[in-house]
Write a structure and sequence with these properties.
Chain A is α/β, with parallel strands linked by helices. Chain A has 30 helices and twelve strands. Chain A has two domains: 258 residues, Rossmann fold, CATH 3.40.50.300; 396 residues, no CATH class. Chain A has a seven-stranded mixed beta sheet with strand order 2-3-4-1-5-6-8, with helices on both faces. The chains are: A alpha/beta (703), B alpha+beta (86). The structure holds guanosine-5'-diphosphate (GDP). Guanosine-5'-diphosphate binds next to helix 1 of chain A.
Chain lengths: 703, 86
């Protein structure tokens, strides 16, 4: 082999076979997540050194049961493996199979093998074989499958070396197909296809006809042939069914010779757990308790590191002020960038805890039971049991959650899920909630639960209820016809692997910090600019005007008082202040002043900016004060006396943020996922209106 | 005689008799739900839907509307769907 050769290796497999674990074992921290062109499916790639001179570029494809796609995620698999011109076209494919479910896994394998790309079967979870009483004749299986077969345990890091060896020097894996199903079904028909697609293998031609969306890499003539064959849908469907039956027959015959299960070793733990976890009473009780636990953990556990971060950034600002040379740049750093970054870092503890708990639920296999429990209920609201996963993930961040809606088959259910997911309480709302709750709800306990935690839980509940209610309305109003299939696997229960969870958290947190971070930082800088600049007649003559004012009032004043007066005047007459003042009449009935108005405007980009903006505003106004943002908000006084952030205003803000669609990132994702501007615009308008009305009522009733 | 998966009791088993390709998504077949295979109803979700079945080694949850399209025999005689056998 040549020096420094790079080969493409694609990982394919059913969901829950340990593909992610294997990917992590092979690539370690050498991985990056990108996007497939045109769609937003995550594309995970990583490097793995196979030998001195060969490196593998490992591509982790989305989990799928078959090469015939049902969802957008699954269609990526087909498109990557079929388009020889794509940059990711693999030199070797590894099909990961679960040793316990090997039969169904082999269906995918047999389809992949027929693509005539060298394919290796990695039989994972080998560590469970003895317990389950399974034995496999590997040599014979290799011969029958015309491929290398390697027993591995991704979790215990066993067999990985053998697998690497096979990638490097396959013993058997060659460009040969496995099955000859076509000749056994309808010889004339398939001979016709073969004649029409001379340059392609028969199986590929068959897939083009039955599956392909993007045919751009085929010739015009070939595309016409495809149109021709597609006319007889019934016949195609019938042949596909028959193909599947034939494939299973072949697999059964092979497994009969090579695979033995000692039935007496079957475990009953799964059955017992299933009975409890999907029980009509206990099932829901357990699910509700788990949700409750999550929310308590997010609020209680995260509060310590969050306070710490808050204080650290306050003193960091102080330190910078004391040690940096004065000037424009100085202002930008101390009043713009440091509070801005602080506003991002502060969510990390909560996000980590939330991602951790959601990842555990997914890893253990519990999430599928929740889907099972919830399907009927969700269907009443036009969604599917699978919508539970986006809705729960939405509590971390709506962006990945909306992408998770992709594996919902059925356009209507998917669309409704996408439209209502932003109602669930995402972590970007947490800083807003957290700070306001801390200001208006006493730090007391009720029946052992912290009152603040309970309030947060109520807000989560509110988010969930509004998601459900609007789903119901959409279900009744939307006239979209679509077929939807609901077939999910109930995977075996597993102890979660720390390594997998660690990687998931790392990946998601990183994405959040960088994606959201960019926006927040940019906005902090723009805000700072808008807050420190203003029109000539007023802003730039601030000093004179304030001097005059002071003289006229003949109020005694110290140097600091004078400076504060000037800063206040400047903020009020800065561009930012003017914007806030302009919308003040509109938001006054909600209990807000122009400063909160500024924060509302800027948080249209992303909710969490709200806190950062207030931090920036109060900082500009009162630069010498080293108090943390919470203390500053607490100290803020109304013109009429009394606290600015009193109970009615606080509640009104909480309600506003519960409903408002304030996240540009989410809007962008909805646009991409629904492929039209119609839905994000609809979302923006209806949610903002709802937020305004609800906050209005709240304030008017409470004050 | 026209029993379907939707008619099974919890814990009861049957043999899949017919799967007609017009009604059943290919995916179900791909998950192992094929004529001649034994199917066991493990659990019914609290609101009577979906159903949790084991078929051909796969643990699956399917909705009642689909389950009602899959004919079964409680006896073991195989009776493949005509269209598929031909
Ligand atoms: N016993 C055992 N469990 C494994 C092994 N590899 C993965 N798992 C577990 O199987 C589950 C699914 O693994 P994951 O990598 O997320 O699968 P994916 O859905 O195919 O990406 C997780 O709970 C893993 O911890 C293995 O070799 N042995």
């Amino acid at each position: 082999m040549r020096r420094d050769k790079v080969i493409n290796v694609a990982l394919v497999g059913n969901p829950n076979t340990g593909k992610t674990s294997l990917f992590n074992q092979l690539t370690g921290l050498n991985q990056k997540v990108g996007n497939y062109p045109g769609v937003t499916v995550d594309k995970k790639q990583g490097k793995c050194k196979l030998s001195e001179s060969v490196t593998a570029n490992i591509i982790d494809l989305p989990g799928t049961y078959s090469i015939n796609p049902n969802t957008i995620d699954e269609s990526i698999v087909l498109e990557t493996l079929i388009n020889t011109k794509s940059a990711d076209y693999p030199d070797v494919i590894i099909v990961v199979a679960d040793v316990v479910n090997i039969k169904r896994n082999l269906l995918l394998f047999s389809q992949i093998k027929d693509l005539e790309i060298p394919t290796i079967l990695a039989v994972n979870m080998a560590d469970e074989m003895t317990k389950k009483g399974i034995s496999i004749d590997i040599d014979l299986l290799q011969k029958e499958l015309k491929s290398d077969v390697v027993l591995i345990s991704a979790r215990k890091n066993k067999g990985i070396k053998d697998l690497k060896g096979s990638i490097l020097n396959p013993k058997i894996a060659k460009h040969t197909a496995l099955s000859d199903f076509s000749k056994r079904m309808d010889i004339d028909f398939f001979n016709g296809i073969e004649a029409d697609f001379k340059k392609h293998s028969l199986y590929k031609a068959w897939l083009y006809i039955t599956q392909l969306n993007d045919m751009s890499f085929l010739t015009e003539e070939e595309q016409l042939h495809i149109e021709k064959y597609r006319k007889d849908e019934k016949k195609l469907a019938k042949l596909q069914h028959k193909e599947t039956v034939l494939r299973y027959q072949q697999i059964n015959a092979i497994l009969k010779k090579t695979y033995v299960v000692d039935a007496t070793k079957a475990t009953t733990l799964r059955a017992k757990l299933d009975r409890v976890l999907t029980h009509k009473v206990f099932g829901y009780v357990i699910f509700a308790s788990i949700l409750m636990l999550i929310f308590q953990a997010v609020f209680d556990l995260a509060s310590v590191p969050m306070d710490f971060i808050d204080k650290t950034f306050a003193s960091l600002g102080e330190y910078a002020k004391a040690n940096l040379p004065e000037g424009k740049l100085f202002d930008l750093i101390t009043d713009g960038i440091i509070p801005g970054i602080g506003g991002i870092i502060i969510f990390i503890p909560q996000i980590v805890i939330l991602f951790l708990l959601v990842a555990i639920l997914e890893e253990t296999g519990y999430m599928s039971r929740v889907v099972f429990l919830m399907d009927k209920i969700m269907r009443r609201f036009g969604m599917s049991g699978k919508s539970v996963v986006p809705l729960i993930s939405g509590t971390a961040c709506a962006i990945p959650a909306i992408m998770a809606a992709r594996n919902i088959s059925g356009f209507k259910a998917r669309l409704i899920t996408i439209l209502v997911t932003p109602f669930t309480t995402c972590s970007a709302r947490i800083p807003v909630y957290a700070i306001i709750i801390a200001l208006i709800i006493p730090e007391e306990r009720f029946l052992g639960f912290s009152l603040q935690g309970l309030t947060l839980m109520l807000l989560y509940l509110l988010g969930f209820l509004s998601a459900i209610t609007s789903a119901y309305l959409l279900h009744k109003l939307l006239k979209v016809k679509s077929k939807s299939y609901f077939i999910i696997e109930m995977p075996n229960y597993k102890l979660p692997s720390l390594k997998n969870i660690g990687y998931t958290i790392l990946e998601k947190t990183k994405a959040f910090v960088f994606e959201a971070g960019k926006i927040i930082l940019a906005i902090s800088i723009i805000l700072w600019f808008l807050a420190t600049n203003g029109p000539k007649q007023t802003f730039q003559k601030a000093n004179e005007i304030v001097e005059k004012e002071i003289k006229r009032n003949k109020k005694p004043h110290t140097e600091t008082e004078r400076n504060t007066e000037i800063a206040k005047y400047k903020l009020e007459h800065s561009y930012l202040g003017i914007m806030g003042k302009t919308i003040e009449p509109m938001i006054k009935p909600l209990g807000y002043d122009w400063k909160i108005g500024i924060a509302l405007i800027s948080s249209f980009a992303a909710r969490e900016v709200f806190v950062g903006t207030l931090a920036t505003i109060y900082n500009v106004e009162n630069p010498d004060d080293e108090a943390s943002i919470k203390d500053r908000m607490r100290a803020e006084i109304r013109p009429t006396g009394g606290k600015r952030f009193d109970f009615p205003t606080g509640m009104s803000l909480l309600i506003f943020y519960a409903f408002a669609m304030q996240c540009m990132g989410t809007l962008a994702v909805v646009k991409r996922e629904t492929n039209s501007w119609k839905w994000p615009i609809y979302q923006l308008i209806s949610m903002t209106l709802l937020a305004y009305i609800a906050a209005f009522i709240t304030y008017q009733v409470l004050s | 005689m026209n029993k379907t998966i939707a008619d099974l009791q919890i814990g009861e088993k049957g043999i899949i008799a017919q799967v007609c390709f017009n009604d059943i998504p290919l995916k179900l077949l791909e998950m192992g739900c094929m004529p001649g295979k034994e199917v066991e109803l493990v659990q019914i979700a609290p609101l009577k839907d979906p159903l949790y079945i084991i078929v051909n080694g796969s643990h699956l949850a399917i909705r009642k509307e689909i389950a009602a399209l899959i004919k079964i025999e409680v006896a073991t005689k195989k009776n493949l769907c005509e269209e598929i056998k031909s």
